[in-house]
Amino acid sequence: MPRVPSVVAKTSFKSTPHSLVPTSTVPYSESRRSVPAEWAWSEATAAPAVDPTTATFAPLGYESGYQYPLLVWLHGDGANEQTLPQVMRHISVRNFVATAPRGVDGVASAFGWRQNADSIDAAEDAVFDAIEATGERFSLHPRRVFLAGSGSGGSMAMRIALRHPGRFAGVATLDGALPTSDALLCRVNELRELPMLLSACKQSPAYSEPQVCRDLSLLHSAGCSVAIRQYPGDDDLTTTMLADLNRWAMGIVCG
């Protein structure tokens, strides 16, 4: 199963207009054509970082009159916010405006998301600041903000969404276990209205199948709406996972 490369994607490309991809295409149309990520990045509205530690992604053929869903992406350990273009290439180059704050904790030569009080508070600030800043620059639907992440970023995404369920249209973790303690389900009535996605490979060393089952059981016992995706192998993040994240989120948007 193809893995998402760990290298940072190119941040600028030579513009390559293409008549087969009209900019008037309806942003979330199921009939749109697949296009290379290079076109998305070159033809989209320029989207420099909101600040030095936050990256943004503008969809191909951005239309200011349409309220886009926003995808907030939390990278895994050892990565940073500059992986956002590579991630969006495999999620969708049209469906979302996206933003990615940098992990609040240094991990080796990169960044991550630790589960301690100070890091959780800092992560929440980073996420909500990124949402606010992106909303000032792009046309966004206020009720279609999705929070997703990989590895420790997925765990932090779940933590933040469970603490603030009314702020998100859905939350997804890819190879990141549900965090523990801190009264995760204290807002259980609101959580029942929050769609969730748990994704992992069956032999994942970071998010084992038994742990996925325990997390699923806990969330189901609280009456939460949970979708689960499991994949063969032991990869941490794959292109199939990202494509399924797009389908899950757009099912909510178009539902």
From TrEMBL:
InterPro entries in UniProt: AB_hydrolase_fold (IPR029058), Esterase-like (IPR000801), Plant_Biomass_Hydrol_Est (IPR050955)
UniProt KW keywords: Signal
UniProt keyword annotation of Transport present: no
Signal keyword on record: yes
Superkingdom in the source lineage: Bacteria
Matching SUPFAM superfamilies: alpha/beta-Hydrolases
Signal peptide: none
PANTHER family in alphabetical order: BLL1128 PROTEIN, UNNAMED PRODUCT-RELATED
Name of this chain's protein: Phospholipase/Carboxylesterase
